[in-house]
Write a structure and sequence with these properties.
The chain is built from 22 helices and nine strands. By secondary structure, it is mainly alpha-helical. The strands form four sheets. Strands 5-9-6 form a three-stranded antiparallel beta sheet. It has a two-stranded antiparallel ribbon with strand order 1-2. A two-stranded antiparallel ribbon has the order 3-4. A hairpin with a 6-residue loop joins strand 7 and strand 8. Helix 6 runs antiparallel to helix 8, helix 11 packs across helix 12 and helix 13 packs antiparallel against helix 17.
């Protein structure tokens, strides 16, 4: 049978041998309707407003995660016994881990009020999906095993750690991929050395890193730290998200009362926006094109606020993001609202806050308040006991948690709001 080859910008060639049952399963899953949908969802949402090359999809990322998982299991398997079931569950789980993402990945989750992980499990378990049928055709219990994997209940536990933890195949791929596609070099690290240094603590059922891999993992954590600071927290990207969130909230306010010119009653998008019960089949109809189409239609809406917000997003006339003190008083916010209102804008939609903690998978590494299963453990010397990485690495301890607190407002009032910040809070009030 033929070899299936995927040319990948990060990993070069990803090959699958269709004569091997486990590879044939991966090929069939890739060809499923649910996985092909990921071609229509951008990996970094609105990042293309800041980094014009950031047009890559969840499809390419998920394929990369599967490839990294395959490499990790191969290398671990040369040192430890790993069952065929664990290999199949790990590779399929890595491939399908992002099935539940909605339009523009993370940003709509705040408005639609859902978590993509929940939808991933639902899609995998729903017997009407092609993915479920393919998985059951290979192993009738495979959908349930993947659902257990995503909930960190699967045994052996190290397989779940490779899918989702502080050192997982997901992050290993997206750091390199997002760095390449944005042109920001902060995300580069030595993937091969990290993979070669992985070992399995069979007594504790967890992954650890050999002492020789400490520097490579430090580099990986630094890459992650700076990618969050310089790319995922970029003020232009976040201000674009603020405009989109305001537009969606305005549409949700208008639609129930029939005050919006453009409506699609009963559509999956509108049902999700209004918080109505949505079936798996309906949810799987959603992708970036649904949102892009509505933004174009809303830009001509009779409602001035919805039309203005949509036009700003359509033509990249975004809000300005201004650094603000996290301890801003109620009087400050009242004054800021007054400035926005005097400028002719409704503060409910034109005065938005942006905080680092609002981003899923926050970028800093910390052993505090985290599931121990997700932490990174390293050898303290050849053949020595393992310890949590921040206990042995000054570099990791030096990556202190950081705060980002901003206010996003229209450019028409940004200077006045910035002056208010400098006057009342002593902050930089930097506008970009």
């Amino acid at each position: 049978m033929p070899q299936r080859n995927y040319r990948d910008p990060v990993h070069n060639i990803i090959s699958l041998d269709e004569s091997v049952p486990a590879d044939r399963l991966i090929v069939d899953l890739i060809d499923s309707a649910e996985f092909q949908r990921l071609r229509r969802i951008k990996q970094l949402g609105l990042a293309m407003y800041t980094y014009q090359g950031a047009e890559h999809s969840r499809f390419t990322h998920s394929l990369g995660v599967m490839h990294v998982m395959t490499r990790a299991l191969e290398l671990l398997g040369s040192h430890h016994p790993i069952s065929e079931e664990s290999r199949v569950v790990g590779r399929a789980g890595a491939l399908l881990h992002d099935l539940g993402h909605g339009p523009l990945s993370h940003v709509v989750e705040k408005v639609f009020r859902f978590h993509h992980e929940d939808w991933t499990r639902r899609i995998v378990l729903d017997r009407s999906t092609e993915v479920n049928q393919i998985l059951r055709g290979f192993d009738d219990q495979l959908p349930e095993k993947l659902a257990s994997l995503y909930q960190h209940n699967y045994t052996p536990a190290f397989v779940s750690q490779l899918v989702s933890s502080q050192l997982d195949c997901d992050r290993m791929d997206y750091l390199l991929r997002d760095s390449l596609m944005t042109g920001a070099k902060y995300g580069m690290y030595d993937l091969e050395w990290v993979l070669h240094a992985l070992r399995l603590d069979e007594a504790c059922d967890r992954i650890y890193v050999e002492s020789k891999g400490l520097f490579a993992v430090e580099e990986y954590l630094q890459a992650r730290y700076y990618m969050f600071r310089q790319v995922y927290f970029h003020r232009t990207l976040r201000s674009a998200e603020a405009v989109l969130i305001s537009a969606l909230n305005r549409a949700r306010f208008l639609i129930p009362d029939g005050k919006s010119r453009f409506r699609t009653p009963g559509s999956p998008f509108e049902k999700m926006l209004l918080g109505e019960e949505t079936s798996t089949a309906e949810y799987l109809q959603l992708d970036d094109t649904d949102l892009a189409f509505r933004i174009k239609e809303w830009s001509r809406d009779e409602d001035e606020i919805l039309a203005d917000l949509s036009t700003r997003l359509l033509h990249r006339r975004l809000f300005k993001a201004i650094d603000v003190d996290a301890g801003a008083s109620e009087s400050f916010w009242a004054s800021a609202e007054d400035i926005v209102r005097r400028g002719g804008f409704d503060p409910q939609y034109y005065l938005m806050t942006d905080r680092a903690a609002d981003i899923p998978y926050y970028g800093d590494y910390s052993p505090v308040g985290v599931d121990p299963k997700s932490l990174i453990y390293v050898e303290t010397g050849t053949g020595a006991a393992t310890r949590e990485i921040s206990e042995v690495s000054e570099v990791v301890r030096g990556m202190r948690a950081y705060r980002i607190d901003r206010v996003c407002v229209p450019s028409e009032v940004a200077d006045e709001v910035s002056a208010l910040i400098r006057e009342n809070l002593g902050a930089n009030g930097r506008v970009e």
